[in-house]
Amino acid sequence: MKVHIYALCWNEERMLPYFFRHYDDVAERYFIFDNDSTDRSIEMLKTNPKVTLERFEIVGDSFVSAALKHYNECWKRSRGQADWVIVCNIDEHIYHPNLKRYLRTCKNLGISLIIPYGYNMVSDRFPRTSRPLCERLKCGMREPSWDKPQIFDPNKISEINFAPGRHAADPVGEVITPRNARVKLLHYKYLGMEYLLRRNFELKSGLRPLDIKNRWGHQYLWDREANTEEYQRVKANSVLVL
Questions:
Q1: What is 3-240's CATH number?
Q2: Would you kindly state where each structural domain of the chain is located, as residue ranges?
Q3: Fewer CB under 10 Å: which end of the chain, C or N?
Q4: What's the pLDDT tens digit per position in 96-143?
């Protein structure tokens, strides 16, 4: 069972160790596209032998539009090479107690697209642990908008046609989904107020005029009060997820 993982990266030195701890047992290969990180991300990516590292360059006046075009095409190199691709962000962890076995079962059943149940995971502070985050941070808020169609068979899906942000898609090909997906998408963003504020401020700097006009990534423009309100909302509505 061969799984290829595709992700963009920009200044993710804090999350990359957790990304690799979560996926290393599942991924045969990673394809990581770095958008000129200025922290230790590139150095860290080069230490993982499974990583193919390439540069992601924004062309035009929209980061989101450039990323969308990239995400809709990059995975196609896995045709004939992998059974499944996962197209995700570094802070998105696909969870199942035995993900490889589950994907093998889905493959045998002819399933070609899996949409996980999304959760915004939350903690009081950024974690300091040598374990995968799913073993330490188990509470979060159910978030249907994070039910992202990002696990699929590259040999049966001819076009994925993601919408901006990859929160939806209009796939073309032999599209077969399970009646009930048994996987979760754990979005590790609300890891203490300090981390949330810092990360949103960083991502704000990457927005371009068309992003702002279309309100793509609008949450990165929130002030401290709005971020605090959202963090408290997620925390107040969190339940035991794992």
A1: 3.90.550
A2: 3-240
A3: N
A4: 999 999 999 999 999 999 999 999 999 999 999 999 999 999 999 999
